[in-house]
Design a protein that fits this description.
6-stranded mixed barrel; alpha+beta; 3-stranded antiparallel sheet
């Protein structure tokens, strides 16, 4: 495994620690538009998401959306979109983070029932793809390729 870490470092990948929480999800801290938040890493979520109730908290410019969200046992949820946000995860960042905004109360209710803390949102496959991600599940580490300036 040491060889993979060296290769990733040589190829300008940034190492980000993940925390395995009570639900067995991987949690990370990120900064969205300069505001710190707690997020679940979800490789199965096509888009990164933030709760509708946090539009003001993260200074999001929200627009109405025709898209319906589904996931974690809930379906047909109303959504809004927020484009071109600044997202910083460790030393990795992007200024083109597009988010789906929807009611995350069902997610947070499930987390709290399992004695985990509530989250502000979900980091999905869109960000993982943008960051050319590698995940070391054994060591709870996310690697994202440093963005070019």
């Amino acid at each position: 495994m040491k060889n993979i870490q060296k290769i990733l470092k040589k190829n300008k990948y940034i190492k980000i620690k993940l925390k395995r929480i009570e639900t067995n999800h991987l949690e990370l801290k990120a900064t969205l538009n300069g505001i710190k938040g707690r997020f679940i890493l979800d490789t199965g979520a096509s888009n990164s998401c933030v709760g509708l109730d946090l539009i003001e908290y993260f200074n999001l410019d929200a627009k109405e959306s025709e898209t319906k969200a589904a996931g974690a046992g809930a379906t047909d949820m109303e959504t809004q979109l927020s484009e071109n946000n600044t997202l910083k995860i460790g030393d990795w960042n992007t200024k083109k983070c597009h988010l789906v905004l929807f009611d995350l109360s069902h997610v947070n209710t499930a987390l709290v029932q399992h004695k985990a803390k509530k989250v502000h949102g979900i980091i999905g496959a869109d960000i993982l793809q943008k960051g050319k991600a590698f995940i070391d599940y054994n060591k709870n580490i996310l690697y994202l390729k440093k963005t070019k300036k």
